[in-house]
Amino acid sequence: MKISKLYLKGFGKFENFEFDPIKGINVIYGDNESGKSTMMAFIKAVLFGLKGGRADKEGMPSEIKRYKPWSGEKYGGYINIELENSRRYRLERDFDNNSVKLYDEDFNDITGTFTGNKDGSGMAEKLMGINESLFERTVFIRQLGTRLDGASSKDLIERISNMGQSGYEDISYKKAHSALKEALKSQVGTGRSYTRPLDLIDRRLEELFRMQRQSKDKAMLRLESEDRLKELEAEIAVLYDRERLLSLASEFSEVKEEIGLQKEKLEEIRFLNEGLRVLKKNISELTKEKEELETQIRGTTLEEERLSEELRGLWNNGNESAIGTLERQIRYMDIGEIVLLAVLIGTVIGGFMAKLIPVSVSAIPAVTLIAALLFRNSRKRNLKELQWAQAEETGREKLLEQQMENAKRGRIAAENQLDRTTDHLEVQKVQYQQQINRLEDKLQITGRQHLAEMEGKADALSFELIRLLEDKARSLTSSEACLINSVIESSTDILARELDLDLAKQYCSEQLQNKRLEKSALEYKLGDSGEELNADALEQEIYGLTQQKRALEQRGEALNIAMETLEEASREVQKKYLPVMGKVFGSTFSDITSGKYSDVRAGDNLNIMLNDPLSKTVIPVSALSSGTIDQLYLALRVAISETVMKGNEVLPVILDEPFSQYDDSRTENALKLIDRLGKRQQIIIFTCKQREVELISNVCGQSACKICSLT
Predict the structure, then answer these.
(1) Which CATH number is correct for 1-129+652-711, 3.40.50.11010, 3.40.50.300, 3.30.465.10, 3.30.70.1060?
(2) Does the N-terminal or the C-terminal CB of the chain have fewer CB atoms within 10 Å?
């Protein structure tokens, strides 16, 4: 299997980040806090999901909270994977609502084929053949996380043992042991079970012995039950008569109440008809008022139009223009007269005093001046006439404007009154229709004929009630008899009596029901006890069950022997197969340490011991330096991975800062191991050291690895 694409929609500090790993070696390089561990966590999160819950003891929040997007982006992403059978899938998770989707290479949603759970639990295990626990303890190696705890060792040994014997990791001897144990529990039973065959037989035997003891008691109980049955039949007959009388009285009371209601409804119909008459009159008056107002508005509108047309005629008569022209002409004449007067004076003075101009010449300007004065006076008279006419028109204009304003006010007042009248009319119409609907509803359920039928039914019930009361009065209590008589005789307080009748009837019905239940129980008991138990049949069944019990106990012994044998076989398989894994482990560790430690063993429970080349003694792993221990456990991880994956899907190896405690020589040896692994499976390495990136490029070759920088 290889991961062909990582897409982080929103995960921790990443937002819309994508990376396309190659089949061989992939190096994701970046400074501390650049997001390497977050990206590594994303791979596992998409495959197996994130865990929720509270913060741990150190205050670290749960995974689901720890990796929430910093930017507020949608929380999730997907990875594309390709299996060794060339099938391609897209595994997509939405961590906001804890859901998962699996698509095939044609984007068909095949989630339901691999899991039935919304959170996708079990999906990755079906795809890859490995669960989350083994994934973390084999190919998913965190920073300083190459070591294995006791639980990891136990699970891995179990898986290796399964594969060594059967060729399949999921054919588990542990499961086979559980199956035998379950067979013992289901087919036989144990000391702590309650519903298994042996338990059922024991309980049946106890029941049979109890039946023998109870057989003698049944005859005595039968006689007592028969006597009690006769008493119950007599009590039931009395209670039935009481219930019948009370039911008739209750029905009679209900009919009387219904008659009263019908009369009330007829009165309400009369009231509704009167209301309709008033509403119809109001609608007619309002309609007439509306028509009058509309006529008034039309007349006022026409008057406004006439006055407006007359005003426009006054504005267009041209008097103002003519007055302006005459005023200008008079001003010009005044100037000319002054000029002529000056000329006349100059001529007279020149003729009399200087003798320069003849006196007769002065007559010309004099005549001209007189003619100008006459013409000027004529123009002034024309001007006064025009001004008088203009004054009259101005007064007429103001009168017309006042009349037009009055007409407009009258029209607006009429329109407002029309609106109020229209609204009032609509309200009256709605009320009229509502009254009509109410009247129709009342008429559907009320009528004289229906009232007559109810009165006839009341007479029949009264007759039947009086007849039964005379015949069955002894069945009633005194209070019940008084209550029924009051129902027959009175027509008031019907509701109060109905309540009392309902309570009395309910009490009587409950007593009758209890007596009938008691009778049914006695009849069932008598019918059940009527069949006498056969002592021979009891003895025969007890004997048969005893034989079955003996056979089940023998089967239980056989299953216990099988479980013990299977446990011994499983231990033998582990002893046989663990050395195979140990051989790969020793060879790998020898390569990393340049042959210094060539003899290393992983014994029972993967307890690692090795032969010290200096002291020639067997020493535990704890005696080594921390760097050597990391190298040793890396080799063990590789060996376990090869063993567990043998014959199954080869998974990518994912490492976070795997060489942090290695010296240059052992780092180079480890990289040669990684290069060898990268030729058959995908490798993804996260590192913050530029030196390691350069070493990987040199050892593995730049064409065989892909480097992604997060810095």
Answers:
(1) 3.40.50.300
(2) C
